[in-house]
Model the fold of this input.
Amino acid sequence: MKKFLPIILWLGLACQSAIAAQNEPATQNSTDPQMQQAEQKVETLKEPLYTPFIERYVLDEIKSLRQEQLLMRSEMIDKIANSKLESSDRALRYTSDTVNNVFFIITAAASVLVLMGWRSLRDIQTQIEEHVSQKVSKVSQEYEHRLKDVEEKLKRRSEQILLAQEEISLSNQLHALWMRAGLETNPQQRVKIYDEILALNKDDVEAITYKADAVIELGECEWALSLSTKAIELDINYALAYWQRACAEAALGQTEAALADINIALEKSPALMTELSNETMFESLYEIEAFQALLNKVAVS
Done:
């Protein structure tokens, strides 16, 4: 086929040249050198450029090519169909194997359940319900216990908060009363303020002691002596209570008891020695040697 292609091409060119030469005028043929050469070659030809056998050969080749293409197409279709069938068979086989395995597993599970004593699905359901109810009751009891603990803690904390608020309020009231007592110059009014303080805190040793001091200023020395004694009973280490009782005893003429309480007060609080010579309630003790010794000791120190 490849050997005859140049001949066929050359034949086509020659035919085109001949047709063009016939259509052009005679004057142009005489003047165109290429056309003249083509005419000379055509006139000198001794054999035809092609034969019917070549044409038949070309047609047979084209026919064989078409047949081969159709055969290849049919083979390709068969292969695609076979591959689809194989994939479908594989999917069906996988599905059937999976179903069989599931049934085998269910059968094995049922056999195990029967061996363990669970003879039916109702028994399984009953066991599950009992187990779940036990778990739920256990969890609910734990949460109830926790909630109860939380409630108790909150109750205690709220009580502590209320108690703290009451203590703060009481402290504020006491502070305000002590401020008023410090600014008050009238002994009788100070006694009333100290009574208000004692109404809020009946065991306030300082309030009792300062009330004794105010009572001494009012001339109620026996009352002051009672108050000072009560303060000492509440706090035996409070030096100012002994000091106030010594003042009341000195005013009542109980010199020995007054000197004893003065010594106890100075022993518990040496800072009171500076107030010894300034206390007006001890004027009745200046003639006593023991008191003079105390004064000399203060002067030396």
In short: Residues 52-115 form the longest helix (64 residues). Residues 202-300 form a domain with the Serine Threonine Protein Phosphatase 5, Tetratricopeptide repeat fold (CATH 1.25.40.10). Residues 194 and 207 are 6 Å apart (CA to CA). The chain has eleven helices and no strands.
